[in-house]
Queue: 2 jobs
Job 1
Amino acid sequence: MKRVLLLTLALMLVVTINAMAKGGAAAEPEPEGAREVLVVEVLNTISKDRLADPEKSAPAEDYILKRFGLTYEGPTVPEGEAEDKLALMFASGDEPYLLRPYRDDVFKYAREGFLYAMSDHLDKVPNYRKLWPEKEWDLLLAFNKAFDGKLYCLPEQGWISCGTSWIYRKGAFDRMGLTFPSTIDEHYETVKKIKAAHPESLPIASRWGVGWAISGFLHSYRTHNGWFVDPDVNDLVFGPTTEKYRDALKYSNKLYRENLIEQEMATITGQQWTEKFAKGLAYMQWEWTVRYMWANTVMESVDPEANWTWPETFITAYPGKPALVDRILPFQAAGWVITKRCPPEIRDRLLELLDWSCTEEGTIFHEFGIEGLTFKYEDGKPVYMDHMYSVKNPEGEQLWQYGLSYPLKRNLDAVVQHSGTLEGTYYGFELEKLTKDMPYLIEPNLIAWGFTEEQIEELADPETMMGDVVGEYEAKFVMGLLDPSDDSDWADFQEDLKKAGLEKSSKIRKEIFKTAVYKLD
Amino acid sequence: MIRSVDREKIEKYPGTFSLMRHKVSKSRILLLMILPGVLYFLIFRYIPMYGVTIAFKDYSMRLGILRSPWTLGNFARFFAMPKFWRLMRNTFLLSFYSMIFGFPAPIILALLLNEVRNQAFKKTVQTVSFLPHFIAMPAIVGMMVLLLSPSTGIVNRMLGLLGIEPIYFMIQAAWFRPIYILSGIWQGVGWGSIVYLAQLSRINPELYEAATVDGASRLRKMWHISLPGMTPMISIFLILRIGGLLSVGAEKVILMYNELTYETADVLGSYVYRRGLLAGDFGYGTAVGFFNSIIALILVLIANSAAKRVSEWTLF
């Protein structure tokens, strides 16, 4: 009897657990005249500081359900566990229908045969296709076509062409009667004056190691600490083998010796870096330009008139020759893919949704939300409502709380209201105007190489070692442990580069470069 | 209670199935209690062992483990890594020094705490000493960078008071191992001493009383009573620690190192991370893990065998 009871209890437990695992929510009845509701299997990832509010996100989900007959279902994991979870899902044949991987992962999934080829369905996304002028479309294909020449993802469209520059404390410069320098000699004089006026100051701040600390100067000297297309010889060159790179190191070392640049650049932590700003010690930095907003906020208590901003000029080491600027590809490195596990009717519905997201109406929905709930129209233009986050209301509610973010194309009005200035400008657009005619650094990420898997594997070890050698010597030269002006130290550097595999890397890269695509203009 | 029929059977067939069945029946409640644990290990530890075959496969997600083609390429790539021997050397030395200096530390702390008579002080020291165990690694390394900062760090300020020029510890390859090991000891000594203190608390107090009567000093008592009382635990933990000689966690190394310290800091885990080798390459990652496991097994067997010669306390 006891045994029968135990067995019955066990059976009931198993049945209960099974029912819970399958979920218990009954399907909601379809509204009249609505499209058949299709369920899209996804993998939801959550970030602890970006959790959508279920109540707030319901209207947006409802809209998509009514308009496209689509609803999403799937497991939810913290951001840090998403990669492992996704790998498991693919390995067990349970992969989500829709995801947004980075390019290398797109190629990997495509090679394994998991994905629909988007190039076979471009007729279903005419609005997406219209986003790209012919040259940009050719570039998109050059970067994103897989091993078989097909396009397996729809990359997101970028919205700025240049994102890095010097940022400087204009308010302090104005008080000292200084203007932002346009040449290296002017730069040296400027930082010397800042140091003389404020001996405790850090004229040139930095974070993220030695490479980032001197990045602005590498741009000034029209060079790079890796492979790049040198505009002075119009050829692919490994920067650390050039005299221009050596000159940039000499200048950086000079700044370091005279305590004009961050002294602990090799190990500086985020906290140490923030402290320098919070104490009002920093005056300029090579950075992601958008950081000017953060700098003003952090420095507000010690210098409310700091007025961090980007300059109207870039610093050149060669008067008459402009510095190099960074350039961002017109498309992002991530894009939307649909796996073959997705039934064709759901695939087509998803393509319809993605295509709609590229229209004016679609971008307004994804970046402004629901009219009357998160935005209103003023003079025919969408404007965030008073309770929503904008540059005028930094304490407002965020759009992601409403379950919204843009999938493929940004709404530029939203960009300005969300991330611009009170005057209605946006740093990215201003920087674009400033740099559009300047030569840009054509580094490996801006070149569609067309490597085979074998070539990638062949390059991986030597180029990791070369990167290690460059990093080590760069740090030693800048921080004075070695002398960049000393020919024997320099010769040792070049010798170590060769031992690391420079010749092998050079041979493969230069051969591939003959057919690579890299012109952005 | 054994029925007379069973007793006859047991006597007739002492080592057979019926005896086993009788024993199982007798201990069925205990076996039922242990069943979930056994099932857990069977399902999540033993059955997944077949996944180690991925190390010998050119793994494809589409084909799965069984249908992916066989290869030794993962191991070939592993051994052909540039500076493979430097990476092995650093991995081994970091672990070896951590063991030499770090293993005795909790034992010494436990012995010293055991001598403290003031219970309040003893408990306070215990609590304070094991709190660092709960601090996340990035916070530990961040604290180290701040403490050792050449401009604002307290260590350099104290050196300055002694007339010594500031030392930029974190960029010097020679300082990497000492900092790694000392910070590891600081973080783990309190937590590690708990199990030894528990062992010490089981020692019969009469032994200490008898030693006092015989005129033994505190050190003598420690040497002849306390330490032998911990020998079983020390022996087993040492064997396990030797088995982990190639298992240096890459997380702390990656957080601590920079280009200037690669010579002594770069270990197997940090190189494969930098190379991006593990990203989606399950075959390679498994090969590296499998190699480490084989070395660990060999070391454990050697250590266990050596321990058998000097002590009755071994792992198996």
Job 2
Amino acid sequence: METRADVAEHAQFVDETSGGSDAVPLSLSPKVLLFWRMPWAIVTLLLVAVCVIGAVASDATTGWLIAAAVFVAIGATAGTLLPRARYRRWRYWVTDETIELRHGLLFRAESSIPHFRVQHIDVRQGPLQRSAGIVELVISTASASTDATLPGVEPERADAIRQVVLARAEADDAV
Amino acid sequence: MEPAASLTLGPRRLHGLSPVLDLLPAAQQGFVPIAVLIVSIGRWGILGALVLVAIGLGWRVLAWSRRTYRIEDGVLRIDEGVLNRNKREIPLSRIQQVDLRRRLRHRVAGVVAVRIDTAGGGSGAEAVLDALSEADALELRTALLGHRAPAPAGASQYATPAGPVGFPPIAPHHDPFGQPGIPPPPPPPGYQQPPPGYGPPGPVGQPGPFSPPTQPGPFTPAGPYPFPPPGAPAGAPGMHVPEVVAELDTRDLALAGVTGSGLLAGLSIVGFGFLILDYLPDDTGQDVSSGIADLFGTALVIGIAAILLVPLWLVVAAAASILRDHEFTLTRYGPDLHLRRGLLDQREATLALHRIQAVWVLDNPIRRKLGLSAVQLQSAASGTDATSDVARLTIPLVRAHDLPRVLEMVMPAGGPLPTLVPAPPAALRRARFRSLVVAAIVFVLAVALIRNAYALLAALVFLPAWLYSGRVYRALGHARTDTAVVTRSGPVVRNTAVVPVAKTQSCQLRSTPFQRRVDLATLRIQVAGRGPTVEIIDGDAATLGLLRNGVLGAPGARLDEQSVRKRAHADLEASDQAAEGGQPVSNYRSQP
């Protein structure tokens, strides 16, 4: 359960790790691995169920069982390796001037959003994310095609980032 | 500005013919069911149809009698509704534009549909008054727009400091088509520079060809724009002198329709294909030649049909262009652009210059030969009305010598088009590889499916693929000036996009594994609104990284955001003073 102390601690961490050329890259929450693996597990289970039903209902039992084994093998390896590789590539920085995101295995993307362009920051949590204990942070600018979504961070970290970024975005309003 | 609070426009109804005009589109949609009804039931069907029409008309008359609009206390109030009474209040200070539209039925009746948009959008117009008489509509527009708050002092929309910021700027040349830079000739002695925006300079003492109209045309408003508020003396502060940006006559529009239809570009490719067939040897064996003769037979038939249809297609394209953009006039009144166009469906739209996020210059091979192009203004208008002139404003025809002037007028922060830096040679190899792979797939499929000697003809596909990839590469290019980023792409329809650095919302550098192998990347520059993203395709990765940092670090962007927010705050404060809290405040913090 998050407390104000947790959020403040995260905010301080984000503040300290950002700024200048020493900006430390931040990673997503490890729980996002669970969230990314769920679809693999669900699909693999469904396919295996189909194969089992096929094995029971038809004559070519061995064929269906082999197919089931193949699906399990593929699902297990891909479901283990791909999310982990993806997690390792996911990095973000909250610097003095911008928010930077770097992600993608094959098709890599590096996004930069200046703080003063941030219009609002939404925190979203679907049922799968709730069960994994993470939230999705969506940073919006005036452009509909800005790609600045952190797919899975801890709720306290999300609040901290929101505080820090909005404070910096608002700083220009005081002029 | 005080006058906002004192202006009152008494409660008025829409024009008396509005119920009938409203009924026409409904009748158009209901025509088929009613016709079926009449045909199937006969005499009683006619009676039934008349009853339906009467009910529809009666309802609309009732709605008309309940709908009134008025302006008081700086708020536009619209009361409407037969069963559910609906009171809308729109603070005058939030109204960004008032567009007039005259469709065919409006022109027949001599009325106008008024569409009112506030800043920040949401989906669709804030209010539509359909229809008002001409006089009422013009008076309403004067009243609504005459009180717009002036831009806050010190927040210049176009402030972009000069000087290199992180990336050495390329010296701008005055050559929009990439010719080696030749500086413009020095002006002759005794030459008098006309005030900016008045078009190419004429001899001393004479106006250039684009001086403002001296005689009222069919669209000329009843006074200088923005129209003086009732009671204010003419020449009150805030009046702007109009400068014509683009004015197209019927010939221009026909030319735009014919050259832009894509037909001629397509024909050139087909013609090229026929040219290749000409080079085949005459007798390569009896079967093959008879087979080819069959092929030519059908090709001949198709060719003749195409020859007959082509002029028809061109005429239709020209006519469509004329209907859509008749008497196209784009005028700049200070910080606003005012567009009038249309023959059957006349539209008048207003677009504030500061809302323009990017300018696209489009041409195709035919237009390039003729020295023409089209210019599209992409704005931040977030309304989802696809037919809105404000979201994407297109000038159908701009001549090459006119292009710098037009660009200067619609995007002062853009500057003249610089010479573009071509993409690295690795990009050419990538383009060739992609085209040849596609050609190879086509060839393999042809051989696999056709299975005889004719399939070897499919090898012909490699030549066009090679040429196409060359075009893809030559079209790529980008440049960075002090104030803008320019990028170009497109093998057939070539787009050149100009984005002021100050309008950049965010950037994204993307790369595929193939690009990474040769140190290439694609840079996307996002601007406000829902329009297309500006892309620098297949540029050198290191250069694009520096460019991105330079663009994001430019002080112009911060100034732009500040001026946007100041405008929003000024609007909000004015509306807080004027409104009684009935109008919900928009969710947007600022309206770019």
